[in-house]
Amino acid sequence: MSVVASILLIASLIFVFTGRNYFSKPEQITLESARKAFGSLTSIHVGAEIHIESEKKGAFLGNAAVDVLKNGDYRGTYSAFMPDDTITSEVTCVSGKAYRLGIDGSWETLSAEIPGAKFLTSSALSYVSGAKLLGEEIVDGSPTKHIVFTGSTNVALALFPEAEAASNPRTKVEVWIEPETGMVRHMRITATNLSFRRFGKFNLNADVGYSNPNSITEIKPPT
User: Fold this and answer.
1) No. of H helices and E strands in the chain?
2) Which CATH number goes with the domain that contains 180?
3) What is the reported pTM?
């Protein structure tokens, strides 16, 4: 057996018995550990602070607060604080069916298919291109690995139900992952060429944090 063949055999045995691929890049291994960590949770709370540059309304702030279950069900409140108006939207999604609380206090079914909040958790790490490890940093007292990659536009759209991608959308995602546990301590989303009927085309920068793991087990359709 050649030396190369022997090395490949040893590496394959290591992968079988330890579950680690020593030919994978460090950032790929770290992202995979984060996907598994998200998958081990029954639920997680996602909070986001959003900076928006829009075609019609200029620059303003927004936020999102969303509870996400492992199966993809979620409930969230989304706000945009425009210079001349404030929009607040409450959305609940159960078994792929989304509902929005109307201004009259009744719930309406959203006809358009909207990206689920799972794109703020494990699915955010499933559509990755050009991942690069930028270094190691301390976040909230925990050591983390800082990774940047090009991600799915749905990661950004999950912060704005009913928004959509315009021409040539681009989404950059940065994550800070605790290597010991695989937990994502922080996520930063930078997206361009999105569109929403109230403020036209827009770009966003969002800082996303995670808290209250495993705090809820069920989300029911609104009544």
Assistant:
1) 3, 11
2) 2.50.20.20
3) 0.84
